[in-house]
Amino acid sequence: MDHESNAILQLPVSIVSPVDIGRLVREIDAVDNFLREAAIRQPGTKIKMPRTSRLMDELVLVNKLNILMEPDRVRLAEFLRSIKTEAPIMHFSFSADPSPIFTQKLMTWLRREIHPLVLIRVGLQPNIGAGCTLRTNNKYFDFSLRQHFKQSREILAQRLRGSIS
Amino acid sequence: MNILDLVLIICSILTATVAFIWVAVKLTDKSGGKNKSVTDTYTELAEHDVEHVFNDEFREELRNRGRLHFEKIIGENAMFLQQDLQLTTSQLNEYMKDEITRKLQEEFAKYEESITDAKQLAIESINKTQEAIEQQRVIMGQQLQQELGNEKARLVKRFEENLADIVNHYVLIAIGDQIDLNNQLEYILADLEANKKAIIEDITNGS
């Protein structure tokens, strides 16, 4: 991964998943196309300015970019495309849909402790009870309540035997 | 009247007939002897006297006397025959009674012996069957106890193996609605922190 060339650009914690990156890529392409069309348009032709999303606004704000400027726009597009293809992706599964605040806190920790450009996919797995499961490229981590119960099964069995006998 | 009585009556009639013939022959012999011993001279006289003495009345008288004697003999023989017959019948009845009684007793004894043997055999068979049943019951009881023990151990083992899922399911049913994901963030981050090195290594070195 070419971290050095994109070192100055940061991903805000509100950008979470590859889906968000794909949406931002399409958005920056739309802006770029609009500006190109605007440059070659006939005077008096009515054009429609594409609206930027909250994520794009935040990304631009965090990185102090001006997407009306072509170098910044190109740089941002390259950055997003490199992230789309190369950023590490982690698959989390929770028992319920996580709230945006929860996701932001989790992303903050992951970007700080694991990787600054990490993305996550969130899935649902209601039978795990509490906690989460994590799947990376080659490993599977089970941080669920069920796994905790399995690890402490002997203690529970001993307590049950003690209460029965 | 049975055949024996009929035979006895016929025998008595034949005996009476023989006696009658014997009397007639004796009488004939007496008259014959006299005729041989007298001379021819007196033959005609004798014949005349005979005809005179043994006239029709005398002959009728003799016939009557012979008939009466014959009837007397017949009556006496009939009486004897009746007595013999009664005695024989009585003896025969007694004999038959004794024989039948003896045979019946023998048969009853054999029957009783057979019943006793059969009863003994049945008792032995029942005892053997009871012993076999008792042994089978003991074996089945032991097998049942063993099966119950195995089943209990299997159930306990299965319960203990699935204990985590059971408790997890129970917790989910009981307080699943009250578990807030936001409250779990601290524990999730602690788990992530504990496995941070492995996660980083997998992300860094993984394909």
Biggest interface in this structure? Answer: A-B, 40 and 29 residues
Using DSSP, what is the number of strands of chain A?
Answer: 4
Percent helix of chain B, as a range, is over 70%
The arrangement of helices and strands of chain A along the chain is HHHEHEEEHH
Please give the count of helices of chain A: 6
Distance between the termini of chain B: 131 Å
The biggest beta sheet of chain B is recorded as: none
Which band does the percent of strand residues of chain A land in? 5-15%
What best-fitting shape of chain B do the alpha-carbon axes yield? Answer: rod-shaped
Helix content of chain A: 40-55%
Helical/strand content category of chain B = mainly alpha
Structural class of chain A: alpha+beta
Q: How large is the count of helical segments of chain B?
A: 6
The H-and-E topology of chain B, N to C, reads as HHHHHH
How would you describe what is shown here?
The complex is a heterodimer of chains A (165) and B (207). Chain A contains six helices and four strands, in the order αααβαβββαα. Chain A has a four-stranded mixed β-sheet with strand order 2-1-3-4, with no helix packed on it. The N terminus of chain A is likely disordered. Chain B is an all-alpha fold and 207 residues long. Chain B has two domains: 126 residues; 40 residues, no CATH class. Chain B has six helices and no strands. Chain B starts with a helix and ends with a helix. At the A-B interface, α4, α5 and α6 of A face α4, α5 and α6 of B.
